[in-house]
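Case study 2.
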Amino acid sequence: SEDGKVDIYRDTWVRYVGYANELGEAFRPLIPAPAVWGSYGISSIYVLADTYDKVQKAEKKFSKASPKERFVEKVEAGVDTCLWQGLASVIIPGFTIHQVVHYSKKALSTVKAPVVAVRSVPTVCGLGAIPFIVHPIDSLVDFMLDHTTRSWASPLKKWYTKKDA
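Prediction:
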């Protein structure tokens, strides 16, 4: 992390909990739909836990700031973390793996592959895609947030903390 301390949600094995929905999507042809939904629940809990952690760290870091400034910093930390994790850990990779599995299955069905292949090969394709999508998605989400919400944060913080001052 930026301060040199280990961030349990980003620098340890806990980070992989955020990928639960990708595994759910990869195994979609082989498991019941509620299990796939459950994998999204696990990933969403991870996102919320990391968001809570970052808000608590902002509270601690800005404990000597005015209540208004502390509030703004906590909101910024929470919004940024929730958006980043939601997009980079759940929404975009879940959609991507879903599409890999869907089109793999469709291609195998089109060529009239054996049923066992139609059910299992898309899972292998989905699992195989995971390592290749993580860093590009993370970079994409960084770019997206840097050019939207993160660029708006500073002027909004200045406006809000000066308001009623």
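The helical segments are 20-26, 33-61, 67-110, 115-146, 149-162.
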